[in-house]
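Q: Hi! First time doing this. I have a protein sequence and I read that you can turn it into a structure. Is that right? Here it is:
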Amino acid sequence: MKIVNVVWLDTNECSLSGWQSERELKESKPCTVSSLGYLIKEDKSCITIAADKDHYDQDDLFGRCQVIPKGVVIKIEFLEKI
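A: Yes, that's right. Below is the predicted 3D structure, encoded as structure tokens:
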């Protein structure tokens, strides 16, 4: 399986349960996230990765999976193939 690093933009909770000025909000930016995982699927709309995989590869089981919309993806880096 291919291993990838997906760099993407995520929402940023600005308030942190407190009040913020308009200036602070205007200066806020989305979070840039780097997610590593096994490449499960990639098509024109999204990329699906899994951080964990059944070691013995008998049950086709995956864990900590993410489906990331291509519209927020900055880049996809292909790492090692296992």
